[in-house]
Amino acid sequence: MRLVKLLSVLSIALSQVQACRTDEDCSLNGICVHTTRHGKQSACKCDTGWFGDDCARLDLAPATRWTGYNHTNATQPDDWKANGNSSWGGTIIQDPEDRGLFHLFASQFEHGCGLSGWRPHSFVIRAESRTGPQGPYVYADRVTDAFHHNPQVIFSPADDKYLLYMIGVDAPEYTECRSFSYKQWPNNISVASADSPQGPWTAPQLVLSSAPPDAPHSTNPSPWPLWSPRNPTHEIALGVEDIAIFSAPRWDGEYTLTHTQTWNTTEYSPTWTEDSFLWRDKRGHWHALAHWMIDLVEHDGQKYPRVGAHMFARQLTGPWHFHLHEAFNSSVAFTDGSTQVFKRRERAKLFFSDDGLLTPLYLVTGVQDMGETGRSYTLVQPVGARWRGFEEGLGL
Fold first, then answer.
1. Deepest in the core among 90, 205, 306, 391, taking most CB within 10 A?
2. Cβ distance 166 to 148 under 8 Å?
3. HEC profile of 273-304
4. pTM of the predicted model, to two decimals?
């Protein structure tokens, strides 16, 4: 009898945890399904790629070692430090003419300086993979000079162009590995365009300055075209630091601030975030991933393991919601059976299915091993199970 009672209590508790009233309780990553079985109940039915009681956690599959873009073991005779061709995150683009070719736009650091010398030694590179979105990727060409960092590439259907957003400014050559303050090398946001992922790219055009009145939001851009078949507009939404939202009538137009978040995004608060990644889902709802700084706040500067936050809204201008738990962490399972906790895992970006459902297929992040300060690389990790069918369609 006591066992029956205990099971009954656990069942009630579980139903309370899983209960939902609206789709917001499912993070807009699923729908709240109401049933009448055994009384009035409800639970979230998560979209593919997400899981959890509130559908706010990425369903990450094991990653494969030495895929992504990992060239930390590469050296050149004129390197100043032995951090190889370290990189930090990136955007995956499938080639429109050759569907078996994938491009990765990533930040790389000159002269073996690595992540610790990111400002002003970061520049944007393009790498290629013919073994699917996971890679491994091989360096193809240099897209910008230093200092340019945190690239995100999108395709604008209204303009039939690829748009490369990034931070930084043209910086003079510096002769040692060190990182400077943003006051010396600003985090200005600029954009370049090209007809093809291979370029050529136009010169970067300033979008937002890190000086007032645009500051402090003008860093870490994440664009999303507002174009749809029913509304073939040229408008661009631009998420930036703290998930502030800018918009422009077209990619090379004037960007104006349209929304700032109501939660406290000041440094050393529980909602301190950076590195926004913005997208609109199949239902027209809005989402963002961000680097959550909660462990840095609660554990005296530690940058792991709770590193990923998810925010969501029905409308671009809000209200936005922030569930205070991790969307992903810095612990990564690998196909060789091992698990590794990274010291840093940041710059999260997603690669989606191209079938109109925008199912997340791969998560791209910059990672750094424990004990490292300079070496870092770009990790690509599958999401859910749909990526298998995607790769099978490529003949892989």
1. 90
2. yes
3. EEEEEEEECCCCCEEEEEEECHHHHHCCCCCC
4. 0.93
